[in-house]
Design goal:
Blueprint lengths: L4 E5 H11 L4 E4 L7 H9 L4 E4 L3 H13 L4 E6 H17 L5 E7 L13 H7 L3 E2 L4 H18 L3 E6 H5 L1 E5 L31 H19 L6 E3 L6 E6 L2 H11 L6 E6 L1 E3 L3 H8 L4 E5 L5 H12 L1 H4 L3 E3 L14 H12 L8 H14 L12 H16 L4 E3 L17 E3 L5 H9 L11 E6 H17 L4 E7 L28 H8 L2 E5 L4 H13 L3 E7 L14 E5 L14 H6 L4 E4 L4 E4 L19 E5 L1
Parallel strand pairs: 2-3, 2-4, 4-5, 5-7, 6-7, 10-11, 10-13, 13-14, 15-16, 15-17, 17-18, 18-20, 19-20
Antiparallel strand pairs: 1-8, 6-12, 9-11, 21-24, 22-23
Helix pairs in contact: 1-2, 1-6, 3-4, 9-13, 15-19, 16-17
Length: 634
């Protein structure tokens, strides 16, 4: 097959590499910046089994089953998901794999779409798993392909770490050949217990398995010494050596180019970052007296190379090290070429002026005048706005200083003013109900505040069920509100077990959330959050009841493919009834409810409708005390 050059996102390049490697099983849980990998596989490779699993631990287990049965497999998740999968991940590192198996872990430096900016590289060292980091889009393809070969050679899981800017940016990629190979799945388990290919698959005996794991790591280190994914570019004896990895490789190259430091600065890009290729690193460091580490997020490479240097002082010699620990590279957040340029300016005593100060002042003023201030809020017509509006109101009406424990999803915005500052705790997926279960048992210590937890429908299946079971069994007092918008909306509407479609859009059995909750013994009811009064009445009654109560607020997301672009009502303002600032409602529509579809016209002293943004959900017609907002059926 002829090689083709094409523009690909980093995630698409990873998919292509997996397909060229002959992957047969791929499982994951949606989470930005990783979601496109399973999405793309499910749409482009019908001969590969792809699955959106209920959570990341299960996804890793499903993929491992493929490997144990002789099929190359892929597990995909974002960095918080590796925490979820960590229990099985530790066992898998010890038991080893059979057919090639790769875990794609997508980190999110700067927490652009995450609750934290965790660094999954630390897991590779903690658990003894080989780690690869592609430094550009071509490498995303080639390294993914090689990762499967490395995995089979070592009989070990291999972690491929990507980051947001690599996953979601695009670059030119030359594709390779796709080999059509029929593979039959078969799990062999009748051999000797210690035979990794024919015996039972387990982590015991631990002492033997752990020793084998260290042997595999040593073997990986030897392979990494000559890996083509480790590259040195620059003068033979540079004044400064930049050691970098992942997408930071491109940032470093751009910074050196912009400052015209090609004759003074060399770049060692490491694609194999655990175990480190120590001989290669030693040879490169000996060429210079100054080293700058450029990496995201933790000083992972920096600290490990310093440990290596301390262990062999006669080989490395005295060096000046710059990086996160010296303050030349920020300890937190996403890097970019400008930050690397700034660090090089400090080291070389340079000053780059990309444009004049007068131009910058003019640009800043223009930006200030042209960009209206707008706080983060829910989308127009979002059911979560209606849900939090009612929850917030009910807790005030109840008048016992009750509170809401939050969870991870679009509805995390409930912690901000755009969500009426309703959420008071926010941690990991499923933690909202877990915390509420704990709070709900504190009455013996005098606590009488009602507690509500919120949880999305996808999150319910991911990690909301165990804490609900815990609350029922331990007779806790709480109300769990399941915000059911019929999909994993935050990451692109991937299906979950509560829907009647599978990963590729095929029909699939639907697991009914209401029946699951009732089977656990929780008093359960369903309501449309757009019906504010009915929701309010139900929730007020639930807060008075002891035990575990579940309210499912079901309304499909306004951006879902089924609903997007459809209007049920045209929303109008009766300007005769709208009294604006003179109403006495303190502009509840635009200042408090604050749907982007509602606009405050200061000159007219009236509320207006933004017909472009308004989705016609009709919720705002229920909040105006003057009855000035009207809904006309489309």
């Amino acid at each position: 097959m002829e090689k083709i050059s094409c523009l690909m996102m980093g995630n698409q390049a990873i998919v292509r590499g997996a397909i060229e490697a002959g992957v047969k099983v791929a499982a994951g849980y949606p989470g930005t910046p990783s979601s496109e990998i399973i999405d793309t596989l499910s749409k482009t490779a019908p001969d590969i089994y792809t699955e959106w699993s209920v959570n990341e631990k299960v996804a890793l287990e499903v993929a491992a089953a493929g490997s144990f049965a002789g099929l190359r497999s892929l597990a995909v998740m974002k960095q918080p998901g590796v925490n979820v999968a960590a229990d099985f991940l530790m066992h898998l590192a010890l038991s080893g794999t059979r057919a090639g198996m790769v875990l794609v872990a997508a980190d999110d430096p700067g927490a652009l779409s995450s609750i934290n900016e965790g660094d999954t590289r630390l897991y590779s060292k903690l658990m003894g798993i080989p780690l690869l980091e592609p430094g550009n889009f071509q490498e995303a393809l080639e390294m993914t392909k090689w990762a499967f070969e490395l995995s089979e050679k070592l009989k070990s899981l291999v972690i491929l770490r990507t980051v947001t800017r690599l996953s979601h940016a695009s670059g030119n990629v030359i594709t390779g050949e796709i080999k059509k190979e029929a593979k039959k799945a078969y799990f062999e388990f009748n051999g000797n217990m210690l035979d990794p290919l024919t015996g039972i698959v387990t982590t015991i005996p631990v002492s033997v398995k752990h020793s084998l794991q260290h042997e595999k790591l040593q073997q990986a280190g030897e392979i990494f010494e000559s890996s083509v994914f480790n590259t040195y570019v620059g003068p033979e004896n540079p004044e400064l050596l930049i050691i970098t990895s992942s997408i930071c490789n491109l940032y470093a190259k751009e910074a050196v180019d912009v400052l015209n430091l090609d004759s003074k600065v060399a770049i060692l890009k490491l694609g194999t970052t655990w175990p480190l290729p120590s001989k290669l690193i030693q040879a490169c460091i000996q060429k210079t007296k100054q080293i700058l580490f450029v990496e995201e997020i933790q000083p992972f490479v920096e600290e490990n190379i310093k440990v290596l240097s301390a262990g062999f002082p006669d080989k490395f010699g005295p060096k000046a090290y710059f990086g996160k620990l010296s303050g030349h590279i920020p300890m937190t957040g996403e890097l970019n070429p400008d930050l690397v340029i700034k660090s090089l300016e400090q080291i070389f005593t340079l000053e780059l002026r990309a444009f004049s100060s007068s131009y910058k002042k003019k640009a800043d003023k223009t930006l200030e005048n042209c960009t209206p201030a707008r706080e983060i809020s829910f989308c127009p017509g979002c059911p979560h706005r209606a849900s939090f509006f009612t929850i917030n109101k009910v807790l005030k009406l109840d008048n016992r200083n009750g509170f809401t424990c939050g969870d991870i999803g679009c509805y995390s915005l409930g912690i901000l003013p755009g969500g009426f500052s309703t959420i008071k705790t926010l941690h990991a997926m499923g933690s909202g109900t877990g915390l509420a279960s704990g709070f709900g048992k504190l009455s013996q210590f005098g606590m009488d505040q009602p507690v509500i937890s919120v949880c999305g429908d996808s999150t319910f299946f991911h990690s909301g069920i165990p804490p609900l079971v815990n609350a029922v069994h331990n007779e806790s007092n709480l109300t769990m509100v399941i915000l059911d918008n019929s999909g994993t909306a935050m990451t692109g509407f991937q299906p979950h077990p509560g829907l009647s479609t599978g990963t590729g859009g095929e029909p699939a059995p639907e697991v009914d959330i209401e029946q699951v909750c009732k089977a656990m013994g929780a008093a359960t009811c369903i309501c449309d959050p757009f019906d504010l009064k009915k929701t309010e009445n139900i929730l007020l009654e639930l807060l008075k009841k002891k035990g575990v109560n579940v309210l499912i607020l079901r309304q499909i997301c306004t951006l879902s493919p089924e609903k997007k672009g459809k209007k049920y009502f045209n929303i109008l303002i009766d300007e005769q009834k709208c009294k604006g600032e003179d109403c006495g409602c303190n502009r509840i529509c635009t200042r408090i409810f604050s749907c982007p579809g509602l606009i405050w016209n200061k000159e007219k002293n009236k509320t207006m409708i933004n017909d472009i943004l308004c989705t016609g959900c009709g919720v705002c017609t229920q909040i105006c005390p003057a009855d000035a907002i009207k809904a006309k059926a489309c």
